[in-house]
User: What shape does this take?
Amino acid sequence: MIVVKTHIKVSLGYFLLAALLGVLLRTFVVAPMPINYRFIVHTHSHIALLGWVYFALTTLLYHFFLDKQLLEKSYRRIFWFTQLCLLGMLLSFPFQGYALFSIIFSTLFLLASYWFSAFFIKHAPQAFKGTKAYICVKYALWFMIGSSIGPWALGGIMTVLGPESIWYRLAIYFYLHFQYNGWMILVLMGLFFYLLEYLKINISTKTFKCFFLTTVPGIVLSFFLSTLWTGPALIYYILGGLGAVLQLIGYGILINICRGNRVVLKSTLSQFQFNTLKLVAFLLLVKMILQWLTAWPYFANLAAAVLDFTIGYLHWTFLGVISTALFFFLEFFGLIKLTRMAIAMYLGGFLLTEGLIFYRGMAAWLGWPLFEDYSILLAGGSLLIPIALMLVLWSNKGNEIKIQA
Assistant: This one.
C-alpha cells in the first residue's frame, strides 16, 4: 500500500533541499565558494518547483480523488519515474547547468507530468467529474501541460535565434506564468472547492460559473504582463491589465464565498488553520495587486529594470501563497502536523527575506542606502526557512497522524 504521508515527507525533503540551496546561493555573495552560482540557481529552482510543489500537489490529487487500491500499481510506476527524473536533475544541474544530461532529465520530467495528467483524467471517478473541484483541477492540469510549450520551444530558439533573443526570455516567462498562475494556483483553488464540498458547503452553479469565467480567462490574458519588458504596443498593456482585473474579480468572488460561509469554516477549522487560511487569502491579494500594477507602463518598466522586484514577486508567490496554502491543506487533512514554532519560524524567514529583497529593489529605484551587512542578514534570514522545514519533518517523523479524506 502506498503511504501518502511518506510521499508528502519526500516532497518536504525536496523543499528542504531547495531551501538549503537558497541559503548556499545567498551565502555565496558573502563568502565565495568553489561552485558555479548559475548552475546552483538552476538546481534550486527546479527542485523547488518540481520536487516540492509539483510532487506535493500530484500526491494530494491522487490521495483525494483516485481509487488508491485499484490504481496503486500504475501510480507507483509514475512515482518512481518522476523520482528518477528529479534525482537526475539533482545530480546534473549543479555540475553542468543546462547541458546534455540535465536537458534529458528535464525532458523526461515533462513526459512524466503528461503521464500523470492523462492518468488522473482517465481514472477520476465519474461522480467527481461533475464537481466544481474537478473542473478547476482539470483546467489546472491543462495549463501545466500548456506551460511546457515554453521549454519545448527553447531548443529551437537557441539554435535559430540564440539565447540573447527576446524569444528566449519570453519562452521562460511563458512557462513560469502558466506554472505559477495556471497550474499551481488554480489547482489550489480546486483543492479549496474540494474542501468546501467536504464541509458540505453548497455553492450555486451561477456563482461558480462567474468565478470560473473570470479566473481562467484572467490567467490567460495576464500572460501579456510578462511581455511588457519588450516595450510592445498599447494593446498588450490593455490585455494584460484586463487579465489582472479579471483575476481580482475571481478572487473577490472566492472571498465572498468564504465570507458567506464564515461560520461553518470557523467552527470546522481550528483557530490555527483558520488564521492560516486568512493569511493565504491576504498573500494572494497582495500578489494579485502587484500583478495588476505591472499593467501600467511605469511599473512595467520598473519591474523590468529592477530585478529584485521580480525576484521578490516570484518568492512571494512561491514561498508565500503556494507553499503556505499547501501547508494549510496538508495540516487540515492530517497529512502533516504543523507546530506553531515551525510555522512562525517559516513565516519569519519568509517575511524577513522578502522585506530585504524588496528593500534592495526600493534602494535601486529611489536611491536609498543599502545598509552594512545587508547580505549577511539576508543569508541569515534565509536560514530560518530550512530550520522551520527541519522542525516540520522532525515533528512528523512518526506515523500516528490521522488522515481525513
Remarks:
- The two ends are 16 Å apart (CA to CA).
- The CA atoms of residues 333 and 404 lie 5 Å apart.
- The first helix runs from residue 4 to 30.
- The chain has two domains: 1-128+306-404, 130-290.
